[in-house]
Design a protein that fits this description.
It contains eleven helices and twelve strands. It is α/β, with parallel strands linked by helices and 358 residues long. The radius of gyration is 20 Å and the shape is globular. Keywords: Monooxygenase, Oxidoreductase.
């Protein structure tokens, strides 16, 4: 299947997969996956997605021993050499604890290495580890993020930059190199559930990516409304304010197969986060099935069920891209390959037919 980068006239929405590179214990063997193996499998998964015609591959960022990825642009640069068409994005870059100049330079370099396929999804971050690690104060993260995203936008626009803020050394006529192959790197802001961050994305004119991991997707409509209202007030038109969603899920030929195959890995993944103030109750099979119910945004099921949920999101807020994390908890590459194929060959046609009648 041929992929056409960024072409929304061919398909109703863009599809993507993403990974956080978690190093989970295999629920069947009890063995931990080695970081080297995990990274090799990420590259193989990206190759499979590229060959299937999926438009996007994202790599997340964590700074702890049970994750293999702390530097998305490094991993994406390796993926760039193994793929041909698929766009490559962070999922996400924690811009509250990263220097915008270094972020821009890294992704501009990735853009050159990938022949113009790089994107950046930035967020304030959902975990506490990066703040003390990189010398930032947690209580300032909202203000720092807003300042950093504005600077990142400026770096994206100009080769020479003069800038002054509160949380970083001032820049005076600094040469920002290298420049990306694309005229500008596509910038997105990721949001969990904060309307203020969604409004910031609108006022900046970036894309908005909402992390919807469970529950009713309709509950996130206020985020989109805050985003588009702020964007319109800043002078942007709705068509230049794209909305994306990231979520967890797994696709199999039937709902029963999807639940049976994915549950052990997802349950172990949830157990992994029993650290500090992040304590989760053990996830029972019944509770897992409730998470995956037809009315929820948890994308576990048959191609027909997953397509129905994505179409519903499109109807709710004009979804333009959907990215799915299916390797949660160390799902084997062989099973992930089958799920990627179903996403491309089964889910996508169903979504196209429902939205544009293709």
């Amino acid at each position: 299947m041929e992929a056409e980068r960024g072409n929304l006239t061919r398909h109703a929405i863009q599809f993507g997969i993403y990974t956080l590179g978690d190093l989970a214990r295999n629920p069947r063997t009890g063995e931990w996956m080695a970081p080297r193996q995990r990274l090799q499998e990420l590259i193989e998964a990206a190759k499979l997605a590229d060959e299937a015609g999926i438009e996007l591959f994202g790599v997340g960022e964590h700074h702890r021993l049970d994750f293999a990825v702390s530097s998305p642009p490094v991993v994406l640069a390796a993926i760039a050499q193994a793929t041909k068409r698929i766009r490559l994005t962070s999922a996400t870059t924690v811009l509250s604890t990263a220097d915008p100049v270094r972020v821009f330079e890294d992704f501009a370099t990735l853009d050159l290495l990938s022949d113009g396929r790089a994107e950046i999804i930035s967020s304030r971050g959902a975990f506490l580890e990066p703040f003390p690690l990189f010398g930032y104060k947690l209580e300032q993260h909202e203000e720092v993020f807003a300042e950093h995203i504005r600077l990142l936008q400026l770096l994206n626009e100009k080769e020479r930059v003069t800038w002054e803020g509160r949380h970083r050394t001032a820049i005076k006529q600094a040469e920002i190199a290298p420049r990306p192959l694309q005229e500008r790197l596509p910038l997105w802001i990721g949001v969990g559930g904060t309307e203020a961050t969604a409004a910031l994305a609108g006022s900046c004119g970036t894309g908005l990516v909402m992390a919807i991991l469970k529950g009713d997707s309709a509950a996130y409509k206020p985020l989109v409304e805050a985003y588009r209202t702020a964007g319109q007030q800043a002078g942007y038109k709705n068509e230049s304010l794209p909305v994306g969603v990231t979520g967890h899920g797994y696709i199999a030929k039937s709902a029963e197969q999807a639940i049976d195959e994915f549950y052990p890995y997802y349950a172990h993944y949830k157990e992994q986060f029993k650290r500090g103030d992040r304590v989760f109750e053990p996830l029972t099979k019944d509770a897992f099935m409730e998470l995956a119910a037809p009315h929820t945004a948890f994308m576990v099921g048959s191609p027909e069920q997953v397509a129905e949920k994505i179409v519903r999101m499109h109807e709710q807020y004009g979804l333009t891209r959907y990215m799915l994390q299916m390797d949660v908890g160390g799902v084997p590459l062989s099973k992930l390959a089958q799920a990627i194929e179903l996403l491309a060959l089964k889910v996508r046609p169903l979504v196209d037919r429902a939205i544009v009648g293709q």
